[in-house]
């Protein structure tokens, strides 16, 4: 009994962590299970009834079977990609400016960067809608893209800044002492070291853009440019098609694959450095 209690005292943090991870992954496991189920009606798409499970691959092989699903998914991917590219470029440049340089208004800029992260989405959505109407911009793709870039930049800046904060600035100076030009020192030394943070920021920006509903719902207006989250919300009124579970599961598996690939690459680099040293 004492040995069991001692083992529990040593492992309780690990066990608690496993329980929390299990709690977080239970909804994902349910969606993954439902992606292989053919519900009896659309009202039971998200009802997990073990007595009424009918295995099918049709939800995966025929994702476009639901009217409008693939169109909305394509819109979300296009907007997410464009917003990710723009916000990553702008956010990375802002991060380098805030970390490497001293200029008037630097403290105020740091504060303003956090405002979109702290502002409630409904407040941001109504403000952007008022701005776009006042500027007489037609609501649609352009307004959605501007809104997504705006709130994604903050997360990119925070992520890349965290990477730059732990980077020794003397590395670039050492490279220039070895007759590298400023551009060569940046491209061959600094950029490869910062790239993991940039990639993490890009993946985060894409996830935020793809997932956003509240702000997108405001700045879309009546243009009919429905994204994937808006399609799900609209379908909920008449019954969500089961293909949505397959799309959600596919997005999770793709994200999980990116994370695993990043971890494997990091381990390989660590192994190579240990072997060379």
Largest sheet: none
Helix content: over 70%
Q: Strand fraction band?
A: under 5%
Indicate the multimeric state. single chain
CATH superfamily of the largest domain: MetI-like
- Number of distinct beta strands: 0
- Count of distinct structural domains: 2
Rg over CA atoms? 23 Å
* Average pLDDT taken over every residue: 84
H/E topology pattern: HHHHHHHHHHH
How would you describe the overall organization of this protein?
This protein has 277 residues and is mostly helical. It has two domains: 2-52, no CATH class; 67-240, MetI-like fold. The chain has eleven helices and no strands. The protein has helices at 2-34, 58-61, 69-100, 106-118, 121-134, 141-165, 170-177, 182-211, 214-220, 228-235, 243-276. Helix 3 packs across helix 6 and helix 3 (69-100) crosses helix 10 (228-235). The longest helix is centred in the last third of the chain and has 34 residues, at 243-276. The chain is globular and about 70 Å long.
